[in-house]
């Protein structure tokens, strides 16, 4: 098997490649395992049937998660480009979808780094429980200096700015080193470290008083929940958002694969590794919440939370009450930083790859230009007294009407519009250990698009019925709908600008494939 990428015509530089399948898998797993695994999955499971939720969750993994991963791996490896270039080679108009995904990644990167900055600070706060007796008041008033009016910016917050800059320096340093020496090596070190830390957290959590009650609350099945459509929608939503599909990350990562790499087997390993970590996180979180509930003399339902509230309010309170709290706190927040850091690297790499592929810039120039832009926007928007409000609304709308919607559009375009699923299946089967049957085409052509469309309609109905989180309509219009719609508009504008440029690697790659169709098909 060749270890070199085929040199495209036109004098373009060779594309970087992963040094091994392990390197790619670690990077893919690192991208998938993020903050949502730790602070979203446990709460979603608890709220949607407990142990019974694992049935629709597994169904969603098999009918949407793994098939989508294989699809993105195949597109990335076959067309050897970032999302705009890969989709452009499928069909010229589809390039817009790729740039839309790049714009989505830019938005997500700006606020995702801010959460990591908070986790960095809270690692330090864990040593002396700086949040005192009121973790929520400390987070909002002393640390974030939250403005009473959402969207009204009046104060710069240095305590958020400097760890945010630190996160960006570390992220860009890894990206400057490239695919093998940077991203691959970083994930090979951090993913085993993350799993090791979380295993320690699980063992410690299971020894706490009340841990059994917490696990009972999480895993006791409510079989009646299986008849509710919202439970199945929640399962598909969790799989979709936790596997890094829908916004170009896996297309980008797979573009650095060897031509004969196993795609279906790699997708299954990455997907099941991600799901295993989610269950591990659920055990750690709910065993700890069980301790909190017992200490407060209330039920587990009264202390259950997710997202920012779980990580930066509930867990600090638990850390203050439990034996060896400082040790537990440091491990927990360092684990948050590691999980988020590997995901942030993958998000920013999508933007860098698109800039490199379209302009021909070297890695250093691309990383510094992209990194400089995203860092400035990140600090300006989220190191101020409205940062939490902006983050909350942007995250909600870019997930629902950016990532999920872009994923739906890609599926409809590839399966219904271009009818490319049979050709992509042949390409994947040519080098994969597990052949794809008709089920793969049914999942991607029927099941997943229907479920994603259902999610869109359900979300829109809720959105129109009442304002998200009680925010004002004007704030939601510019910070929510404006961000989601702006990403799509930027995608269209970047497509128009891209087409005005002279031919580059994308066109050279297409010419190379026309001359060598056998090699292209694996």
Automatic annotation (TrEMBL):
It comes from the Bacteria. SUPFAM superfamilies: SNF-like (SSF161070). Its main location: membrane. Keywords: Membrane, Transmembrane, Transmembrane helix, Transport. One of its GO terms (cellular component) is membrane. It is a multi-pass membrane protein. This is Sodium-dependent transporter.
